[in-house]
Structure formats: structure tokens, C-alpha cells
Fold this protein.
Amino acid sequence: MTAKPRSMHLGAFLFQVGHHVAAWRSPHSKTEQIFDFDFYKQFAQTAERAKFDMIFLADTLAIPRKHDAYLKHAVTIRPEPLTLLSMLTGVTERIGLAATVSTTYHEPYNLAREFATLDHLSGGRSAWNVVTSSRDEEARNFSREKHLDHGPRYARAREFVQVASKLWDSWQDDAVVIDTNTGLYADPSKVQRIDHKGEFFSVRGPLNVHRPPQGRPVIIQAGSSDTGISLAAETAEVVFTAWQTLEEAQSYYRKIKERMKHFDRAPESLKVMPGILPIIGATEKEAREKEQHLQELVVPEVGLAMLSASLNTDLSGYSLDGPLPDLPQLEDINGGKSRFKLVSDIAKRDGLTLRQLMYRVTGARGHRTITGMPEYIAAELESWFEGQACDGFNIMPPYLPGGLDDFAQTVIPILQEKGLFRTAYTGSTLRDHLGLERPAARQTVQL
Amino acid sequence: MTAKPRSMHLGAFLFQVGHHVAAWRSPHSKTEQIFDFDFYKQFAQTAERAKFDMIFLADTLAIPRKHDAYLKHAVTIRPEPLTLLSMLTGVTERIGLAATVSTTYHEPYNLAREFATLDHLSGGRSAWNVVTSSRDEEARNFSREKHLDHGPRYARAREFVQVASKLWDSWQDDAVVIDTNTGLYADPSKVQRIDHKGEFFSVRGPLNVHRPPQGRPVIIQAGSSDTGISLAAETAEVVFTAWQTLEEAQSYYRKIKERMKHFDRAPESLKVMPGILPIIGATEKEAREKEQHLQELVVPEVGLAMLSASLNTDLSGYSLDGPLPDLPQLEDINGGKSRFKLVSDIAKRDGLTLRQLMYRVTGARGHRTITGMPEYIAAELESWFEGQACDGFNIMPPYLPGGLDDFAQTVIPILQEKGLFRTAYTGSTLRDHLGLERPAARQTVQL
């Protein structure tokens, strides 16, 4: 018996009017439509026609620091992800629906209900990207002065996921009976309290939604710090990462799959999906020109503010064409550790000026940009996938809707021809698409 | 100049598979579809074709006390309202979308974003039913042992609405500029922090969603206690109530419109909409038989448990055919004061046995049932509306989808013929439908 060939997994990353920081200034973006339902409906239906595993929505709970530069020159407004994703349920049929919701400023009972509802009404297509909120400006929108430290923030996240999982499991799969003759709606012996009492939460349960079609929504995480890797190795089913080079990606891939053994998990029960920003041209020259054009649209104040945030260093006084100043030590960073390491590593490795670094990392927000003809982009994705650097990719179109249309029409068919990517959905749930098992309900406390 | 004639407003109350407590046992209900998107899509589209002002979703954050009776014989599961309502955005075009969200166990920044997102993407059709959570079993799902007392619960609700309103106003209507040439996305002089510091919340803002099409979602409330009336008179634009008789409804209507003067508000800026459960038959006899059939489907354990909860008294030991035991005093009730008064008043007034009272109030969950031919139901609605007892009704179909279909097909045309109800939407937002003004943004703190 030969092993089933691995299949590449693709997420369609839906961010503002494109992932590139200057997307909103591009003539290819429908910038006015950022709060228009039809814009999102078109995105979702294009992604579904192209057979993406899922649509993915990022989030943040505040307008970033350096208000003026951001407010003036960047897109700081964004739809609330779960609200938007719910809206897309009714206009799609098969594609997975993944939303980011922070564990730092939500309640597990509410979150468990929202995702259980989404999972039921979408027929088992939901995924939750579990994040922690690490910015003081987010804390100040939630009655706190400063954000939680790295340790307690992750401890809260871990307990949050536990509580939510217990709530999803609080109804056994066959608890709902519906016998109209005898008047028996549910079997109470199959509905359990969870009686959770932990460091951060006390939750009694049961949930007032029965068990979701997928058992639980697919759990996504993004942390690449050591604590983040442990949390993901223990609880995540998909991990989003940001890597610039094949070697870094391979090293991370080995590390997290290795770490899963500590938790008795099979390596294939977690899919690693780095973000990729594809800039596609009919010729390589055209693609380069597109990239160049986008870079020129970056407003320097915004680029510098983003770089300052990534590096936790105020760069506003420095010359754009000079070198970087001294940076803080990694261990002094609380929040965005992996982002700090990523950006400072690039700066050190390639000896870039501030302007060069700004162009390199702010455009794609730290993710790898692949610029070229569709064949080249497909070959690069293949080489990472076959090189055990990942199980798929989160595709971040630079501008929307054109950037997704281009990828769907030109790169996906090549991946399909190579036998790397599906030509039709074979299952109906997101777990089916991702090849993830449906978890059995754990026994909790009898009512 | 003559005053514009008042127009009746109608909400389509979407509750489980029908508002009647035994709806799930009725052969007319699609009980299996309670977590099926098509069930809700059909409801929403029927209500929109009938020109209802809005769809309304109630909520509760726990499975009620007396777990076993409820779990066994009642529907205790329900979709999370905001998630479900968001899903209906994409399959409707004009009808308003109202969801209940508790102020007791949510954060104002999250809620303000969710509703702002819904309002934008629905083209100005959102409404928020502001409630407080008053059950210990809800508290225990949110890391508390007991629910908040009436005073602090309402104080928190009041402050919550203030904070959310400030957040919706944190972007002036014309703050988003989008000048792709100069790179100016927004005018920072028109985006303000709110710097709210109150008893329950400290929130800095601004919101990361710009001002919604309606300025703010329509604010709905339901409290009928004196504190509830004051909060509604100050902040609500729609009030849902439950009255059994014309006189009670008229007295409440006068009282709340009078109370609004304290807050310098015009009486027409708040619409009073009592709940009505219509049981419709082609003949009166058929209607009575339908009602009788539904009553017989009520499982006595559930009816008694509901009555016990409403009256804050354990009735499980008493004979169904005997009188009520002594009840607690109104001032000792914390949570559900108006429900307690409603039910105990009926019991006192009409001298009912436990079984009679159970049938009277649990079927329609305390709301008025009108049983008869379509003409009779329309005439009853007209008499309350013309008798200054209300500005419209929240229609609670006893079972679904048939109960809404019947009302839409038989009662609405009569109301339209009488000139009481619209035959077409004349505006596009829920504020348009309800005849409510769009609030101007209040100035807050400059960034």
C-alpha cells in the first residue's frame, strides 16, 4: 500500500482591498467598496470557483499607533471578521470560512456559540484563527491600560481554547432526538455541564447550541515564538506563518512537526500554510513593473511607521537612505516577537538601507512576495511544498479583486495540471478539504 | 398643514421554530431545520416580500434552570443572533435586521464594530436590541457566581449604550476621503478618540470602522420596569413590550411617551411595539382548534417550569387543577420584574388554576394571543394601533414557517387595504422604514 499523495492547501486571504500596504491607491483596487457586500461576495465566489480550501480574515482591535500617519495614508477601517464571514455563508456552498477572533478581549461562551452557529448554518465550514492581542492601543479599547504580558496572554489563550472545546463537546453528537409524539426533544443524559474552573475562566455550560457538524471548528494559529509553537503543536490544526526563505520555512516546519510528538499528535493533523503575496505578470518584465508601481505608491510616513512598529524602535528621525540604528534585544520584545525577528534578520542579512528595508517588508507586511509569470509562481509554490517547507499557502492578493482573479485564472490551473491542487471539492466540510479528522466529543460532567 | 398619518410598524419575530412553546411538536413546524440556513432564508425573504419593517431575534445566554424538564421537552438550542442575522444580510435587500445582544456579558468595542459592520454591509438596516442578563445560569457561563443586581445591571447597560454611541460617532460622516493621487485616505481632523472613563468601562477609541450609514443602528429595548422605562425613554427608538389588555397597553404607552419629555425627546422618535401571537384560521372554529391543539402539545413539566421561573416560585409540588400558592412581593424580584407582574396580575385578575394559567401564559410566553379569522386579527391590531396603545406590533408566529406565511398572506393584505401598512418600501434603511431620524455625530475628543 502506497501513501496517499499530499495535496496542497490554499487559503484566500481577504484583507482590506488587497494585502499590499499601498493597495488602496492602486487603480486595480475597488477601494470605495471596502464596506460593500458585493465586493466580498465576488471575492468569496471567485475563491470558491477556484476551489480554495478557505477564505481567511485577519483582525486587529484598534487603529494602530502613530494615528496620524496611518489615519491619513493607510486603510485603518475593517469589517468585523465574524460578522463579515457570516454574511458570506449564504452566498457560498463549499468553501471554508475562517475568522480571526482574539482570546484576550472575548468571552469563551460567546465565541463558542458564534462559531457553533456558523458551523451549523454553513454545513461544517468554519475555522477559528486563535490570536492574542498584544498592543496597548487595543488594551485601551477594553478598559485596560496596558496589554497582557506574553506569558499570561498565552496562558489565557490556551485556557480559552480548552473552555471553547469543552463547550462544543457539551452535547454528544446524538443528543438531539426530536420525537414529536412523546415530546422528547433531547436526551439529557447526552448533554453535559462542563464545570470549568481555571485561572482565567469559570464556565458552567452546557452550550445552548448542539454539537457542530465538524465537531469543533478547525483551529488555526499563527504564533511562531517558542510559546506560540508549543501552543500550536498542542492545539492548532492549521498554522499561518511568514517566511522569506525556503530554509527558514523548512526549519520551522521540522520544528513544529517534531514538537507535536510531545502532545501525541500525528504530523499530518496540522497543516502549515505560510503567507505568499503573488505579483503576477504576462511577462516577467510586466510583473516587475507592477511591483515597482506598487512600491512607489507606499507613503513613506506609513512605511516608516510600520517598520518602527515591527522593530519596536522609533525610526522617524533617521535618513531613509542610511543604515538602521541599533535595535532592542529579542528578549525585550513583548508581542510580535516573531515579526521583530523576521524583520531584523532580513535587515542584518542583506545590509539594507531604511528605504530598501521598508520596501522589502512593508509592501507584503512581512510575507514573501513572489513576482513573475504564472509558471514561475507555480514552480516556487511547488518547490516549497515538495521541499517540506509547508503543506500549502495563504494567498495574499496584492490588490482586489484583480489580484485574486489573476491567481485563480493563471496560477491555479498550473497547480492543477501538476496534480498538486484539487480540481473539485470532494467533501463538504472544511475538515474534508483539509484532510483533518473530525474530533470525537470528550466526556465532561454529567448534568 | 395636516399631520402625516401614522403608519403601523411590524416586526417579524424569529424564535426557534415558532414562538409557541410547543411549536416544535407541531406538524406545521420544520423542527429539524432549526440549524438549517434555508429555513432562515425562507423566513427572511417571506418577511421582506410582506414588507415587514424588520426581522427580530431574541436571545439568552444559557440553557434555562430546571435543566432536565427543559432539555427533555423544550427547544433549548438557538443560533447566536448576530451571526444568524449577518447571514441574512446577503439574501435580503430592504428589510431591517434586529439582533439582541446583552450588555452584561459583552464589550462595547466589539459590539460597536459588529453592528457598524452589519449596518455598512446591509446598507443601513441594522438594529440592536439592548438587554441585560438577569439569570444566575447565565452568570455562571461568564465567570460569575450570581447575576448583577438590577441597579448596577441597568447602570452598566446605560453606560454601554453611551460608549457604543460615542464609538459610532468617532468618525465624522465625511472623514473617509480616498484621494489616491495624494495618498490621503482619511481626514484625521474628522476622526476622534472618545476617551471614555466611566464606572464600568474605559474606552479610548476611535472605532476601526467608519460611521455607519444609519449614523447608529436603531436602538431597541424591552424593559417595562420603572428603571427600564426610564432607560428606554432616554435611549430607545423602539420598545418591545408584552401586554394582555388594551388598557394596560394604553397606560404603558402614555407613561413612556410622557417620560420622554424628561429627556427632551419627541414622542414619535420612539416606537412602541407589543408582541402578538396570532393563531389564524379560515373560520373562527378552525382557529380555536389550532390553538387547542397547540395547548395540548405543551408538556406539563415545561409549562410548570416556565411558570415557576416567571413567578420566581417553585410550583412543582402543587396540583395542576388547584389555585396558585402565595407569591413573593414584586420588590423582592431581581430580573424579570415586568414578567413577574404580568403573570401574577393575570392569575389574580382571572382566578385561574395552575393548569389554566399555564396554558394562558406559557404558550405565547406572556404575550397576547389573538385567535381567529384574518379579519378579526387585523381589526384587533387596528384597534390597539388607533387606540394609542402602540405604534405597531412584533408578530410572533406560533409555528414556522407556516405561521409567518399565513400572516403575510391573509392579515397583511387587510392591513394594507385599510391603509394602515405599507405596500412597498419607500426608503432603503431601517430608519426610513420606521420614520426615525438619522442622528448627527456628536463631537468627542480630537485625536
